[in-house]
Amino acid sequence: MSHGVVPDRLAEGARAGIGPLARALAGIGISANAVTVAGGVLTVAGAGLLAAGLPLPALLVLLVGTLADTLDGQLAKASGGGTRLGAFLDSTVDRIADGALFVGAAASGASLGQPLLLWSSLVALVASSLVPYVRAKAESLGVGASVGPAPREARIVIFLLGLAAWAVFDAQALFVAAVLALALLSSITFVLRVVHVGRQLSIKER
């Protein structure tokens, strides 16, 4: 699976690195579903801190939430494989978490008087919700749609890097730039996936 602008080696290395933790949690009976929910709650809480204009606490909470989001899949594997309920829960929580991030960024833009951050966040919110929808709909029709520069992992990495620049170096402009980039990349990914699916379906129906 493509990870967009995030190098595949980096993404796979991160997953491999948390393998021992996943196996340890599985050994003490912690379920992947519990980690999924915890990650979603932490992400929503981090988004709330961002909306309140607290970038450093937001970053710290979101980093833990992101770890949980990555950990649940590895934990499911360590526990003998995922379930359909787990897959449904994971996908649903991901959509909630993604929406919370951009709502938090939009609220931050509104409170700071940053119209570019506000509108970029709203565009990113819509576009990033359409990206997984197109993939899910395509797969239900028997074709793939894992193309484009901004799948979910890439969006999370870009968002957190921008937030880290603001939280650690007080470079608020870099966070605004990161959200603007996400709005553009997510929109491009959506268009590329629609075109890709359209071509595949046209070929299948000939």
Task: Describe the fold and architecture.
By secondary structure, the protein is an all-alpha fold. It has a single domain, classed as Four Helix Bundle (Hemerythrin (Met), subunit A), CATH 1.20.120.1760. 82% of the residues lie in helices and 0% in strands. It is built from eight helices and no strands. The protein is globular and about 50 Å long.
Structure at a glance:
Helices cover 82% and strands 0% of the residues. By secondary structure, it is mainly α.
CATH superfamily: CDP-alcohol phosphotransferase transmembrane (TM) domain
Separation of the first and last Cα atoms: 27 Å
Helix content: over 70%
Which regions contain 5 or more consecutive residues with pLDDT less than 50? none
Content-based structural category: mainly alpha
| Overall radius of gyration | 17 Å
> Assembly state here?
single chain
| Number of spatially distinct domains | 1
Strand content: under 5%
Average pLDDT across residues? 92
Number of helices in the DSSP assignment: 8
Q: For this structure, what is the CATH class? A: Mainly Alpha
CATH third-level topology: Four Helix Bundle (Hemerythrin (Met), subunit A)
Count the E strands.
Answer: 0
Global geometry: globular
Order of helices and strands: HHHHHHHH
What can be said about the biggest beta sheet? none
